[in-house]
Amino acid sequence: MITVYVKRPHEPAVAAEVEGMDDLQDLVEGDYEVVADDHLEGISLIVNEDARGVEANNFPITSDGYLDWVYGACVFVKADGRSLTEEDQSRIDRFLTAKV
């Protein structure tokens, strides 16, 4: 089990435990894509690109200097596949707070 952080539109982010990629697919409710934000080194974002324009906007990200939006649920994971630490979760909270 690894600890991830799940952010849904209009809800605070919460920690969750996952066993593997199937759990991530369930959390984002479909096929997923891995993206990153320039300000969250070492953290990857798992998103459902099929939600683009269909589900509510969640928050903006900056990837390679370009602004984009995350739609629907987003799962934050450690890029190296390990569990997020409390410090990682705190960094994500600060990141999300700055986006509101």
Automatic annotation (TrEMBL):
InterPro entries: DUF3846
The DUF3846 domain, residue ranges: 2-92
Protein name stated in the entry: DUF3846 domain-containing protein
Upper lineage: Bacteria, Bacillati, Bacillota, Bacilli, Bacillales
